[in-house]
């Protein structure tokens, strides 16, 4: 996982605030659902239902100009 440069603390109710630059980058709006996954390095949060705009895959999604791309399609685009 790549650090985002933000430090977030958990409040007494177990909540964290996702910083606005990250919400903007991943197009996370108020009331959007997020999925949580556990990985050896920590917890992964992902906007629910986010999948690649080209193939529909959900492996290692990256946002490009506000659109989700999987790593496979991103690799193919970089080789054009």
List strands and helices in order, with pairings:
Blueprint: H1 20-25, E1 34-39, E2 42-47, E3 62-64, E4 67-69, H2 71-78
Antiparallel strand pairs: 1-2, 3-4
Account of the 3D structure:
It is a single chain. β1 (34-39) and β2 form a beta hairpin. The chain has a two-stranded antiparallel ribbon with strand order 1-2. Strands 3-4 form a two-stranded antiparallel ribbon. It is α+β, with helices and mostly antiparallel strands. The protein has helices at 20-25, 71-78, and strands spanning 34-39, 42-47, 62-64, 67-69. Helices cover 18% and strands 22% of the residues. The model has no long low-confidence stretch (mean pLDDT 88). 8% of the residues are buried. It contains two helices and four strands. The chain starts with 19 loop residues before the first helix and ends with a helix. The protein has one domain (20-78).
